[in-house]
Design goal:
This protein is of the alpha+beta class. The chain has one domain. 31% of the residues lie in helices and 28% in strands. It has four helices and six strands; from the N terminus they run H-E-E-E-H-E-H-H-E-E. The strands form three sheets. The chain has a two-stranded antiparallel sheet. The longest helix is centred in the first third of the chain and has 11 residues. The model has no long low-confidence stretch (mean pLDDT 84).
Length: 111
Amino acid sequence: MTAQTARTPTEALIITLRELGLRHRKGKDADGYTAYADFAVRGVYLRSHYRRTHERVRDFTTAIFYSRHATEVAAENREQIERRTAELGYPFKVRIYTSESGRTDASVTNG
């Protein structure tokens, strides 16, 4: 197997989360049933008047998790996500939040 490379921060994050077993796009599972995505990757832009220019400038890239399972996988593999995205040339930071009720939430961003 050849080593994967990433041309953008979005690709680096998708490669890393797929290596952890998460699904990026909706598709079919082994039994032929619809399997929905575990996460999406989005760019966050500031409005142009904040930058005093008319071009769109991406401020950061983030992962949106659609299931509790995906959030838990990201939280459990924090170091691996940070290490692997840095190896691909686009380092991301994983932040883990715990509510008073004990629910764990995670965010993955590069900004």
